[in-house]
Amino acid sequence: MAELKNRRWLLAARPQGIIKESDFKWTEAPVAPLKDGQVLMRNLAFSFDPTQRGWMSMDTYIPAIPLGQPMRAGAVGQIVESKRNGFAKGDLVQGLLGWEDYTTSEAEGTFGIQKLAPGTDPLMALSLLGTTGLTAYFGTISVGQVKAGDTFVVSGAAGATGSVAGMIAKVKGCRVIGIAGGRAKCDWLTGEAGFDGAIDYKNEDVGAALSKLCPKGIDVYFDNVGGEILDLALARISNGARVVLCGAISQYNEAQGVAARPPRNYFNLIFHGARMEGFLVFHFARQYPQAIAELAKWHSEGKVKNKLDLQLGLENAPKTIIRLFTGANFGKQLLKIGDPQ
Amino acid sequence: MAELKNRRWLLAARPQGIIKESDFKWTEAPVAPLKDGQVLMRNLAFSFDPTQRGWMSMDTYIPAIPLGQPMRAGAVGQIVESKRNGFAKGDLVQGLLGWEDYTTSEAEGTFGIQKLAPGTDPLMALSLLGTTGLTAYFGTISVGQVKAGDTFVVSGAAGATGSVAGMIAKVKGCRVIGIAGGRAKCDWLTGEAGFDGAIDYKNEDVGAALSKLCPKGIDVYFDNVGGEILDLALARISNGARVVLCGAISQYNEAQGVAARPPRNYFNLIFHGARMEGFLVFHFARQYPQAIAELAKWHSEGKVKNKLDLQLGLENAPKTIIRLFTGANFGKQLLKIGDPQ
Fold it and tell me: pLDDT tens digits, residue range A213-236?
């Protein structure tokens, strides 16, 4: 095989405040020869997820990305060379890869690579039928324990996970209110996404709007943002409410693993016999096949839509992650750098 | 019936910071003639509970105590006159009464009065076999979901609820660590109460001690104090941990319904797929009889001890509630003002 040139974005600095383009460094280097047990993938598309800021900053549920190594991302690639049993040239694979043209890997399992069925759409595998959709599914159903008639409120509602969470709650018979930034996102929520109400946190008094739209209180609050909005929701929970902690994107930019604006209203969990529960999607790995089948069915029936915010070109990876953390994205943030062959 | 003189402590001011004696005002007044539907009780003993500061401050799960009205307390009294069906002179009753010699009531139910079996020990009814013991029982078993082998940590461990919670967790086969203030309390925990370990928060580095005593992390944390200790525990939870929010006495003195020092480490609930859940004991009212029977059995077997901190005399009520909020009490704080006749 001719020597391949690899373009790569390395992690140059741990983020301070908002992620900056200078946190990454562009390099070009030849791909090293493959060793036994390894596979070489040409990367096709990258997912952008709030949890990546944690990976850039520190050890969390997985070790921090080492400085000088490629930025880690959920991604889909196609094998161009394999010295590992069970993987062949042409196979589509998904896993935690790097912002680079080619990734060499020998890791399987939760944080390694998994094979995808032939013909899988890489963008679908990185959105509704991947971590994003699964996170919404288990957060809403397993952690949130939604039931028909519940008032379900979701923040980051126009984001990848939030929008799917709300649409799943609709499938389950909830009254669904979304909180998002800007009129266009809110119009999309109450229009195409079928939400019962939307609150524009950039232009509305969120507390007053929640009180008006949730007169009987909030039964399930699916939190993607943390901070003040989490507190406004906690102030309005009903008896026995479930607060699903999916993320806290408003907090990631400011703090190193602790909340800069922690939930002062957590006492309300006592007064209302309510719970606040976190989760990581891979805790539910054994139930993925059933969940993917159900999500695919709802998608084919038009009940759950898969809105993508698609950027193009490896050179734009840093700009694309910044879109996510400034709330510029509208739908699941993806970056495509190639097509399967 | 001859006119009875009633000595009363009225709520004079909403507490600012720590409760002060001047928040109460002593008065004496004749007891008003009884109306149809009312009962008149001579009060025998009062319970002192962290939740009383909430009642003094604002509307919570029940309306705030009106200024100028008697201070509200869980109490046991004996009926001296009844104009209400189902209640007779001599009956022992329990309920939310007032800091006064005589209380007139016409309310039944959760926040009213309930009859006690003849011969009931008023002090037992206000401690292990009353709200205190029931709170420990449902917090540990129903909310905490303790199971054999769990590492169980409780703060306010020498207090009324905390000590019983820890002893119940021992009955259920947990490894139990208590956090309390002072060597004497810690010695009592690891001695008479049978805890596996104790941490003196006044003289030890609580975080370091928790790390040492809980090498596999904390499976159930029963929180009575809130604040920094809650954060130190959250930093050390295991996967799937349950944080039981029973109270937050460190926070009640400073804030009006919001936490002055909220839990910054709540992100750990996400990383560990863990939950933080609050409760009020009366949510479990239907299960009281079974719980009381089990607590009484464990008490008779010597497995769960009932440590009381007994003060005497109505005139000492304000001093006694201050004992609770300064941590001076050791065991369940009670005040006795009379005996059944």
Answer: 999 999 999 999 888 999 999 999
